[in-house]
Amino acid sequence: MTSDYDQIAKQTLDFDDQIRFAGVANSKGEMIAGGNKENVDKILDGSDVNMSIHYALQKRELYTNLAYKIGREKSAISEFEKVTLISIPLNSSEIFLISTEPRSNYVKIVDHVHSLLDL
After folding, report:
1. For the chain, what percentages of helix, strand and coil (3-state, to nearest 5) are there?
2. Residue 2: pLDDT above 70?
3. Pick from 103, 97, 62: which is nearest to 79 by CA?
4. pTM score, two decimals?
5. Distance CA 119, CA 116 (A)
6. Domain that holds residue 70
């Protein structure tokens, strides 16, 4: 499925000029598909990227504990001064991650990715 994820990441990057990064991480925190948009300066590098993935997975795990009451998580959005981070759970071991410019229309982006993933 990694090649499908690479294609979905590419379609996501092409969908909106505000998108900086789109990719899939596994439960070990490893990026298995996707990457950065060309000609975009990276805000995070190396171990900082790994830390960001770890935090996204940790947040997902916390909300999974409440799923029996509030339902399955569909997406999570964190807005920062320099970037907006979006995570979309794919299954129990993979998560789709997107970073955008601040104040992007993340609802439109999440809906687009859901349609690509048939969620």
Report:
1. 40, 25, 35
2. no
3. 103
4. 0.88
5. 8
6. 2-117
Q: Which amino acid is at 75?
A: S
CA distance 119 to 111: 9
Of all residues in the chain, the percent with pLDDT exceeding 70 is 97
Cβ pair 36, 20 in contact under 8 A: yes
Question: Which among 47, 51, 40, 105 is positioned nearest to 79, based on CA atoms?
Answer: 105
Cβ–Cβ < 8 Å for 25, 56: yes
Based on the structure, what is the number of domains in the chain? 1
Do residues 100 and 16 lie in contact, with contact meaning Cβ atoms separated by under 8 Å? yes
> Domain with 78 in it: what CATH number?
3.30.450.30
Q: Report the b/e string of 16-28 with b at 16+ CB within 10 A.
A: bebbbbbbbbbee
For residue 12, CA distances in Å to 4, 47, 70, 83, 108 come to 12, 24, 28, 16, 11
